[in-house]
Specification:
single chain; 479 residues; mainly beta; 0% helix; elongated; disordered N terminus
């Protein structure tokens, strides 16, 4: 074919095929009338052909089902109102083929969406896409959240009150940060632990013990089994130990507790520190209630407070004050208000001694009823003197109704060693009262030059069971 034009014959050109633009498929959006009550078999105008259904309600209402369709097209449900709309799972209020099949009711909070699609095989509506079931998410950037925005996960429920549950699977843990073996996320936590701490300077500062807990704070470590730590730079390394707050505290003893304070430490089993600064509870059942620089370093020792006190004898105690010490004596009590130069060089002491006799052999009374030693009597340090005042009560137990009591007052001192221990003048026990059957009983108060202490000795009677208790109070000066 040719074309005769002005400039002669020309060959005809083939028509050029241009690609046609692909236009987006039209989306059908339907805005339903506001719900003013819960509805069943819901089918607003336009439901059969819509892709997006905009919903709103006058209050929190339910939808128990939608009219079934056979087109298989998914439909986006969008709550554009201010109140929750709840899709009810498998509700008998709607026809069988109009019901919604889900794991649980789905709550559409304000401005939230979900996608449902009709399953023609089971003849049920199914939720194929949604946000987190039972929650409504939002972000706030208004003041006071303008600089650091706040994202909220709000529980959505038809009930007035609803729990918020974070439940891991199996032996998993609840964490505030993803472990990454660095100081950012920390090391992997142990089984069933809870770690909500979000700031640390070392990867080990995590809830690394089995079933351990860090509920918050900074640089805390809960490495003991079922240990708990909170506060700042605290460590709960003993099994079942706990640090409730404060800073730089360490609970390394099993079942030990530090309630707060700073730089406190418990290493003994069942040890307790209530607070304060620099206190120690190193013995089993040891307690330091507070104060500063106090030490309860043996089993059952207690310092109730004060400054720089030491309960060094088993089951001994210092109620408070400053620079008091129990000198490693079992069950002793001491209190001081200060010192000349050393701990315990100006203090008051209290000792409870006891003994059991069944014959007429002399018995040395001790604070633990064991053989006399340097840890269970009124033992003096070198170069010291004590005023001693005592009360003695002897009571027969095999036959009721026989007893005797005495008192004494005197001074004892010790030189460079135990052998240099002596009473300044003879200490005589003064009889307070005595039953007729106790006339042969006797007490003696002397110096023990072997142990360097005050010796309180009781003599009973043959074939007679007698319990004897002696209270000794002292005024102690050393140096």
């Amino acid at each position: 074919m040719s074309n005769h034009g002005l400039f002669g014959t020309q060959r005809a050109r083939s028509p050029r095929l241009e690609p046609r633009p692909v236009l987006p498929q039209a989306v059908s959006v339907v805005t339903a009338p506001q719900l003013t009550a819960s509805v069943n078999d819901y089918s607003p105008v336009g439901w059969d052909t819509c892709d997006v259904l905009r919903l709103s309600s006058s209050a929190a209402w339910n939808i128990t089902g939608f009219r079934s369709t056979l087109d298989g097209r998914p439909r986006l449900l969008w709550n554009v109102g201010s109140f929750e709309i709840v899709l009810i799972n498998a509700s008998a209020s709607s026809r069988v083929d109009n019901r919604i099949s889900m794991q649980m009711d789905v709550t559409l909070g304000a401005n939230s969406t979900c996608v449902i699609q009709y399953d023609v095989t089971s003849k049920r509506w199914r939720v194929v896409s949604q946000g987190l079931p039972g929650f409504t998410g939002s972000q706030n950037t208004a003041s006071p959240n303008a600089t650091v925005s706040a994202s909220r996960l709000l529980v959505s429920a038809t009930s007035v009150n609803a729990d918020f549950v974070l439940q891991p699977k199996g032996t998993g843990s609840v964490l505030a940060q993803l472990p990454d073996s660095t100081a950012t996320g920390g090391d992997k936590r142990d089984q069933n632990s809870v770690d909500l701490q979000t700031k640390r300077t070392a990867s080990t500062q995590v809830a690394s013990g089995y079933c351990s807990v860090i509920s918050g704070g900074l640089n805390n470590t809960a490495s003991g089994s079922t240990a708990n730590a909170v506060g700042c730079q605290n460590t709960a390394s003993g099994n079942r130990s706990a640090v409730g707050g404060g800073r730089l505290n360490t609970a390394s003893g099993g079942d030990s507790v530090i309630s707060g304070g700073r730089s406190n430490a418990t290493s003994g089993l069942y040890g307790t520190i209530g607070g304060g600064n620099g206190n120690r509870a190193n013995g089993k059942y040891g307690t330091s209630s507070g104060g500063y620089g106090n030490l309860a370093n043996v089993n059952g020792a207690t310092v109730s407070g004060g400054v720089s006190n030491t309960a060094s004898g088993e089951y001994s105690s210092v109620p408070g004050g400053r620079y008091g010490t129990t000198r490693s004596i079992y069950g002793a009590a001491a209190i001081a208000s200060g010192r000349f130069a050393a701990v315990g060089d100006a203090q008051r002491g209290q000792y409870i001694l006891r003994g059991l006799t069944t014959d007429a052999t002399a018995k040395i009374l001790t604070s633990d009823q064991a053989a006399a030693s340097t840890t269970n009597q009124v033992v003096l340090p070198n170069n010291s003197s004590y005023i001693v005042r005592g009360l003695i009560n002897s009571h027969r137990t095999d036959v009721i109704g026989t007893s005797a009591t005495w008192s004494f007052l005197g001074t004892i001192r010790r030189g460079a060693n135990a052998a240099a221990t002596s009473v300044v003048a003879a200490i005589t026990a003064v009889l307070i009262a005595q039953d007729a059957g106790a006339t042969t009983w006797a007490v003696a108060i002397t110096a023990d030059t072997t142990n360097g202490c005050l010796k309180v000795q009781f003599t009973g009677a043959a074939s007679t069971t007698i319990r004897t208790v002696c209270l000794v109070e002292t005024v102690e000066v050393t140096g």
